[in-house]
Amino acid sequence: MTRKRKYRIKPRFFIIFAVILGILLGGAVWLLQHETETAEPDDSGRQQYLQGFSIMMAAKVYISNENLRYDGSYFGGGYPPEDIGVCTDVVWKGFKGIDVSLKDLVDRDIAENRKSYSNVVEIPDPNIDFRLVPVLEVFFQRNAEVLTTDPDVILAWQPGDIVTFESSHVAVVSNFRNLWGRPYIIQHGKDPAAEEDRLVASDGMEISGHYRWPLTE
């Protein structure tokens, strides 16, 4: 008499399945969004998406550094060492992916529009201003497209978008999505930095801002 062999599904199967499903959902959402948009002669919608994708990929490369650790120390010149960072460093690193110096843009905007930053900047300091979430919120409110903060309007969220939480945390939106269509975020709020399903955070932090950088020439 032969015994029937029992098969067990290994945990890694579910991980692989979730990753594949996330990629498929991300692609499906992108297709749905762009099928409902009126195509521009210069295909600006596609170019906007690709720009955001470049921001996202640069952010992913940054957090993939195995030696990266959370440290909010002050550094002369503004930029921290490659192995040190906080949540805001994910953002300016992402902008490097489209050859944009977020530090230079923030410093210039503060210098030219001091009143707009009066509630978040007492004395301008180029060594740290671009690494402060409240400053970035004001900057993006002034210079980027301001979008919905409702995580359930899933077509409104694209890779490379910037999202802030209670003016104290910031992250970059990923192309991966969970089973409900909500995107993952790329963040460094603790060690290790990660790409996580935390747009609706388990710690209860409310989304305070959602921005998309205009298409650069």
Helices, by number, come to 5
Biggest sheet features: 6 strands, antiparallel
Q: Averaging pLDDT over every residue, what do you get?
A: 87
Count structural domains: 1
Residue share in β-strands: 15-25%
Backbone shape: globular
Distance between the termini: 74 Å
Radius of gyration: 19 Å
Number of strands: 8
- What would you call the structural class? alpha+beta
Strands of the widest sheet, in order across it, are 3-8-4-5-6-7
Portion of residues in helices?
A: 25-40%
The parts where pLDDT drops under 50 for at least 5 residues are 1-7, 29-41
Order of secondary-structure elements: HHEEHHHEEEEEE
Notable traits:
217 residues; alpha+beta; two-stranded parallel sheet; 5 helices; 8 strands; 15% strand; globular
Topology:
Layout: H1 11-35, H2 44-63, E1 69-70, E2 84-85, H3 87-96, H4 102-112, H5 133-143, E3 145-146, E4 162-165, E5 169-177, E6 183-187, E7 194-196, E8 207-212
Parallel strand pairs: 1-2
Antiparallel strand pairs: 3-8, 4-5, 4-8, 5-6, 6-7
Helix pairs in contact: 2-3
Tell me about this structure.
The structure is a single chain. The protein has 217 residues and is α+β, with helices and mostly antiparallel strands. The chain has one domain. 35% of the residues lie in helices and 15% in strands. The protein is built from five helices and eight strands; from the N terminus they run H-H-E-E-H-H-H-E-E-E-E-E-E. The protein has helices at 11-35, 44-63, 87-96, 102-112, 133-143, and strands at 69-70, 84-85, 145-146, 162-165, 169-177, 183-187, 194-196, 207-212. A six-stranded antiparallel β-sheet has the order 3-8-4-5-6-7. Helix 2 (44-63) crosses helix 3 (87-96). The chain is globular. 30% of the residues are buried. Residues 1-7 and 29-41 have low confidence and may be disordered.
